[in-house]
Design goal:
By secondary structure, the chain is mainly β. The protein has 5 helices and 45 strands. The chain has a 5-stranded mixed β-sheet, with no helix packed on it. The chain has a 5-stranded mixed β-sheet with strand order 39-45-44-41-42, with no helix packed on it. A hairpin with an 8-residue loop joins strand 10 and strand 11.
Length: 650
C-alpha cells in the first residue's frame, strides 16, 4: 500500500480504540507566545525538547536561518520564558543540542550550521554561557553539514562526536569533505580520530547518524543514512578504536534518498527496529522503509506489510506512544519542494493480539487535525507533565513552529512512567543505555541517544505508556559501563513519582533500617549489585561517626569484609559501599543495638509500664535518668520518642 498526500480518514476511527475527546492534539504555541520560524530554511533546522536546566520540565530550543538562537524555558507547565543564547545564526542552523560535554553534571550547548560552522557553549550557571569552541580542535570547514550525534564509543565515560557532511563524490577528496569522528579527551578538547577509526572512508551525502549497540556487546555502533547514490552504512565497533562497515551483511546497505532514521521497537520483541524516511523522488525513489530487527542482527524490510511505505518527500520521524497503550506510534514530517503545503503523518500502531497483526493507520482529524505545512524536524516531550506525550514540529519559511499538546485519549488519568537517568561511571547523560519496563504482562525496551531522528533531540526522560495498569513489576537499566540497576514493584503515582531520575548503581545499595538484636539474634544484610565485578566494602565502628569529638564526621574505621552479604550480631555503626572499577556508586549505613532503647522496665517490650515511668520523671531538668535526646532534661521530645516506638519488643 502506498500512502499519498490525501488523508484517508475512513480507515481510522476504529484504530483509536478508546478515544473519548473531540480534539486530542491542539497547537498551544500561540497561547504560550512561541513564535518561531526558519525563514530562509532549505533542508530544515534543529529542534530540542531537552530539559537543559534540569528542573524536571521539558524545555524547547529552536534553530533558525538568521538572528540569535532562542531557547524557551518551561515554567513548570505554565507557559515558557524566552532566553537568547550567545550565538548569531548566519545561515540555516543544523544541530541544536544540549549535552554534558565536560562531565560536570550540567548541560552545555552544541551548534552547527549548513556551512560547516561549529560552536560549543559551556554552561556556567544556566544563565551564563561561555563560548569554548576555540578549545575543541573541531575544524571549521566550508562544506555543507547536516546532522550530528554523540556517544561514548570508547567507554571512557565521556561523549564523543560524529558529524555528517553532505558532499558526494567518487573522487578521493580531502578530509573536510568527509564525515568526522572527534574523540572527547575532556575539558572540551577533542582529537580527530576519523582516519584511524575508519569512519570517514566514504564521501557521501550523509544526512544523519545514530549511535546504538547493534550486537549488545557493550560498545556503541554507528548507523549512517545517506541521500542520493551513497549506500547507508552500519559501522560495527571493533572495541579497539576501529570500525568495520557491515551494512551489507545485515541488510541495511540500501541506496535511497534517506532523509531521517529513527530507532524504536514497534513490535515489542525487545529488538531495535529502524524507520528511514525517503524523498520519494530523485534517482533512487524508494519510499519510506521500516527495517525489523531480528535475533541474528539481520534486518528485514516490512514497510509495505505494515502500512508505512509512505511515498512522499518525508523528513524527520519520531517514535512515541501517543495513546499510552504500550506500543510505539510514529509521526513523520513532510515537505516537498515540488508540491508544498502537504500534510504531515501521524500513524497509530494497532498493536498485536492472537488474531491481529501489527499495522499502522493514519489517525483521524479528531486526534490530529489537518495542518498543511512545510515541516522538516520534530521532537517529543511532555511539556505539561499530564502523562500524555506531546511533540513539537519545526517548519521552514513563514510557517511557525507547532507545539502539539496531547489532552489524552481517555477521561481517566494517564498510566505511564517517564524514566530519566544519570550516569556515574558511564557518561553523565547515560547515552547508550537500555531501559526495560515490565508492567501488565508487557515488556518494553528502549535505548537512549544523544542525536537521533533528523536534527531533532529528544528529552532526558524516556516515556513508557502502561496501558491499563499503574504498577510496574520491574525496571531494569543496563548502562554502557556494564552496570545493571534493577527495581521491583513500583506503584506509579503512589510510592513512585511518574517522572523519576535514576542514578547509575543506586539499586545496589537498598536502604537498611536500624535494627535491635536481642540475646543471640543475628541479622543478614546484603548489597544488591546486579552485575559482575562489583566491588563491595563493609566497614564498622562502635561509636557513631559524628560522636568522635572532632569538627568533621570521621570515616568508618574497621574493614569487615568485601563480600556482598554479611551476617551481623554486635552493636555498632555499619556501612557498606558499592563501586565499579574504582568509581564509588552508592552506600548504605545503619546501626545495630543489642538493647531495646526505651525499655525502662527491662521486660523486653516498650509498653504501658514504660510510659508510667517516663510520666513520673517528666519535667526533670538536671541529672535526669531518662533523656533519650541528650538535651539534659526529660521533656516532650523524650515522650514523643517513646510513643513512636511503643509496642516494639525483643
Amino acid at each position: 500500500m502506498k500512502y499519498v498526500a490525501v488523508r484517508i480518514c475512513f480507515l481510522i476511527i476504529s484504530s483509536i480504540p478508546f478515544c473519548l475527546k473531540a480534539q486530542i492534539f491542539t497547537n498551544s504555541a500561540p497561547q504560550w507566545g512561541i513564535t518561531q520560524h526558519n525563514w530562509d530554511g532549505v533542508y530544515g533546522s534543529g529542534v530540542s525538547t531537552l530539559d537543559w536546566n534540569m528542573d524536571g520540565w521539558d524545555d524547547l530550543t529552536f534553530g533558525n536561518s538568521s538572528g540569535t538562537v532562542r531557547t524557551f524555558i518551561n515554567n513548570q507547565g505554565n507557559g515558557f520564558t524566552s532566553l537568547y543564547l550567545p550565538i548569531m545564526q548566519q545561515t540555516e542552523s543544523k544541530s541544536i543540542m544540549w549535552l554534558d560535554i565536560d562531565g560536570d553534571g550540567d548541560m552545555d550547548f552544541y551548534y552547527t550550521d549548513a556551512n560547516g560552522r561549529t560552536e560549543i557553549l559551556e554552561n556556567v550557571s544556566d544563565t551564563l554561557f561561555i563560548n569554548v569552541t576555540a578549545l575543541t580542535n573541531i575544524a571549521q570547514v566550508d562544506v555543507e553539514t547536516e546532522g550530528s550525534s554523540w556517544a561514548d564509543y570508547d567507554n571512557d565515560g565521556d561523549l564523543d562526536l560524529y558529524i555528517c557532511r553532505y558532499y558526494e563524490s567518487a573522487e578521493d577528496l580531502s578530509s573536510e569533505y568527509r564525515n568526522v569522528l572527534m574523540r572527547n579527551d575532556g575539558d572540551f578538547q577533542f582529537t580527530d580520530v576519523t582516519i584511524q577509526s575508519n569512519t570517514g572512508i566514504y564521501t557521501r551525502s550523509s544526512f544523519q547518524s545514530i549511535w546504538y549497540d547493534w550486537d549488545i556487546d557493550g560498545f556503541q555502533d554507528l548507523f549512517i543514512i545517506n541521500d542520493k547514490d551513497g549506500r547507508n552504512t552500519l559501522f560495527h565497533n571493533q572495541q579497539n578504536g576501529q570500525f568495520e562497515d557491515i551494512a551489507h551483511q545485515v541488510g541495511l546497505d540500501i541506496i535511497m534518498d534517506a532523509m531521517s532514521a529513527s530507532l524504536g521497537d514497534y513490535n515489542s520483541d525487545g529488538i531495535t527496529d529502524i524507520f528511514i524516511s525517503d524523498s520519494g523522488a530523485g534517482d533512487n525513489p524508494q519510499g519510506s522503509k521500516l527495517f525489523r530487527g531480528t535475533q541474528s542482527g539481520v534486518y528485514i524490510e516490512e514497510s509495505e506489510l505494515l502500512g508505512l511505505d509512505v511515498f512522499n518527500w518525508c523528513w524527520a520521524a519520531v517514535w512515541m506512544d501517543i495513546d499510552n497503550d504500550t506500543d510505539q506510534d510514529v509521526f513523520i514530517a513532510e515537505h516537498s519542494p515540488l508540491i508544498p503545503y502537504l500534510e504531515n503523518y501521524l500513524f497509530e500502531n494497532s498493536g498485536s493480539s492472537s488474531s491481529t497483526p501489527f499495522e499502522f493507520n493514519v489517525v483521524s482529524t479528531d486526534v490530529y487535525d489537518t495542518d498543511l505545512l512545510n515541516s522538516h524536524t520534530v521532537a517529543s516531550g511532555d511539556f505539561d507533565r499530564n502523562g500524555w506525550i506531546d511533540f513539537v514540529v519545526h517548519n521552514t519559511g513563514n510557517h511557525k513552529a507547532r507545539v502539539w499538546m496531547n489532552a489524552g485519549f481517555t477521561e481517566d488519568a494517564a498510566n505511564y512512567t517517564q524514566i530519566g537517568i544519570i550516569g556515574q561511571h558511564s557518561n553523565t547523560m547515560g547515552a547508550g543505555s537500555w531501559i526495560e519496563v515490565s508492567a501488565g504482562g508487557v515488556t518494553q525496551l528502549k535505548s537512549t541517544h544523544c542525536g537521533e531522528n533528523y536534527l531533532g533531540q529528544e528529552g532526558l526522560y524516556e516515556h513508557f505508556g502502561l496501558g491499563e495498569t499503574s504498577f510496574v513489576d520491574s525496571l531494569k537499566i543496563e548502562w554502557p559501563s556494564g552496570i545493571i540497576d534493577k527495581y521491583y514493584s513500583l506503584d506509579i503515582g503512589n510510592d513512585t513519582e511518574p517522572r523519576s531520575l535514576y542514578t547509575e548503581g543506586y539499586s545496589a545499595c537498598p536502604h537498611v533500617s536500624n535494627t535491635v538484636l536481642c540475646d543471640s539474634e543475628t541479622v543478614t544484610v546484603s548489597a544488591t549489585p546486579f552485575w559482575e565485578d562489583a566491588e563491595v566494602v563493609w566497614s564498622y565502628q562502635e561509636t557513631a561517626p559524628q560522636d568522635s569529638g572532632l569538627d568533621e564526621i570521621q570515616p568508618y574505621e574497621i574493614l569487615l569484609s568485601e563480600s556482598i552479604e554479611m551476617t551481623l550480631t554486635n552493636s555498632g555503626f555499619y556501612k557498606y559501599t558499592v563501586s565499579h572499577q574504582g568509581t564509588m556508586l552508592c552506600e548504605s549505613s545503619f546501626q545495630i543495638t543489642n538493647e531495646l532503647i526505651g525499655d525502662l522496665t527491662g521486660d523486653g517490650v516498650i509498653g504501658s509500664a514504660d510510659m508510667l515511668v517516663i510520666i513520673a520523671e517528666y519535667g526533670c531538668l538536671t541529672n535526669c535518668s531518662i533523656d533519650f535526646n541528650s538535651n539534659g532534661s526529660t521533656d516532650i521530645n523524650d515522650l514523643l520518642f517513646l510513643l513512636a516506638i511503643f509496642g516494639e519488643s525483643c
